[in-house]
Amino acid sequence: STMEMITETRQTPVGGTFDVIVCGGGPAGSAAAICAARAGASVLLLEQQNCLGGMWTAGFVDPLFDAANKGGLLAELIRDLDARGAWGGFIGSSFHYEYMKSLLEEKCLAAGVTLRYEVRTVAVLQDGCRVTGVVTEDLEGRLAWRAKVVIDATGDAAVAAAAGAAFDVGDPDTHECQAMTLMFLVGNIPEKYRDGLMMRDVLAAAYRKEGLGRRAVFDNPYLIPVPGGQFGVVQLTHMRGVSPLSAAERTQATVEGRRQMIEVVELLRRFDPDFADLVLLQSAPMLGVRESRRIRGEYTLTAKDLQNGTQFSDGICTVTFNVDIHDEKRQGQTACDVAPYQIPYRCLIPQGLEGLLVAGKAISGTHWAMASYRVTGDCCAMGEAAGRAAAYAAAHGVPVRAVPDEIVREN
């Protein structure tokens, strides 16, 4: 059945012109905006939440994985969080969400980034295969913005897809994507769990006491204390078989995540004396989507690269995080080690398009490879490289493919 159509003809005012526009202010997008602006570019950063940080902040994702080997902006962020008493906690690499939001804003504003919250990118401006800007909608209505380079840090490759980029989704055979998770915050953590808790046994015991034959939705749930506060975040809810490209299914997954959250908190309060005073604080404003579109770029990272620890002349960061697939079939995770490998800048360049870079989990790699580099420490480093590259391309009037390796290479 074909969808009913209406015809619209409209004129859209131009809101402004920038060297670089970044769509999405998560770990990749915030880093891209800050680093492009520090390199001298005029930058517009568009974010649909009311804060920067994406999964770091609106998604309540702790700990910050694959950070130890990173320099640059990520190391700077960690130093500054630490100085504010907002770093450490669980496995020594967790952070306080509000301080992260605040720091990212400070760094953006100090660098001269123009920030715009509560805005969605709804269309792409193109001159043939060249991306020349974006169209947004927010409380002021519909506006067009022109740019020399656009960076897609949406996590879903939304801009690249709208521009006609080729992409893949999920498992190569089934197209199923990894499970989604809605993180949530709890207070009054029992003293004995102040360093964190792998909750498998505690939950299993509570379900047994309840006697309804129910079980946890995930085999490796964690209670993760947040530094600088008497509260923690729980990684537990799992929604499987959800399409990241379906608004309806993502809505259902969010509702189901909250249902699972309430079930578990009530269970622990009733059947585990240690958790009798557990306080439910908040579910994350943003659904945790582990996997979505992956662009087809100038290079595609593969399992072989991860196993061989491949290095590249245009390597932008080193990934050490294992392949971590929260799969559809099982309750748990499939994990396997990697040899430290680099992400080449070419993975950020969508085939057949000019004036566009992609940073974050949507870069060019296989389903298997993405399960390693998708973590936030690596997304941040990708954003940093994309920001530097975009600023260089804008300043020198060259294509993104002509940016020299030394501009993007990890320091």
Structure report:
It is a single chain. By secondary structure, the chain is of the alpha+beta class. 29% of the residues lie in helices and 24% in strands. Strands 1, 2, 5, 6, 7, 8 and 22 form a 7-stranded mixed beta sheet that branches. A 5-stranded antiparallel beta sheet has the order 12-13-14-11-15, covered by helices on one side. The longest helix has 25 residues, at 247-271. The radius of gyration is 21 Å and the shape is globular. The mean pLDDT is 96.
Quick structural summary:
This protein has 411 residues and is an alpha+beta fold. The chain is 29% helix and 24% strand.
The helix content, as a percent range, equals 25-40%
Question: The biggest beta sheet, please?
Answer: 7 strands, mixed
Q: How much strand?
A: 15-25%
| Oligomer description | single chain
What is the radius of gyration?
A: 21 Å
Shape: globular
- Structural class designation: alpha+beta
Termini gap: 54 Å
Low-confidence stretches are none
Counted beta strands: 22
Average pLDDT metric: 96
How many helices? The count is: 10
Key traits:
seven-stranded mixed β-sheet, about 400 residues, five-stranded antiparallel β-sheet, 22 strands
Set down the secondary structure blueprint.
Blueprint: E1 14-23, H1 27-38, E2 43-46, H2 72-83, E3 87-88, E4 94-95, H3 97-111, E5 114-116, E6 120-127, E7 130-138, E8 141-152, H4 158-162, E9 167-169, E10 180-181, E11 184-187, E12 197-198, H5 200-210, E13 222-225, E14 231-235, H6 247-271, E15 279-283, E16 288-289, E17 293-295, H7 303-308, E18 315-319, E19 323-325, E20 334-336, E21 341-344, E22 356-358, H8 367-373, H9 376-396, H10 405-408
Parallel strand pairs: 1-2, 1-8, 2-5, 8-22
Antiparallel strand pairs: 3-4, 6-7, 7-8, 9-17, 10-16, 11-14, 11-15, 12-13, 13-14, 18-21, 19-20
Helix pairs in contact: 1-3, 1-9, 5-6
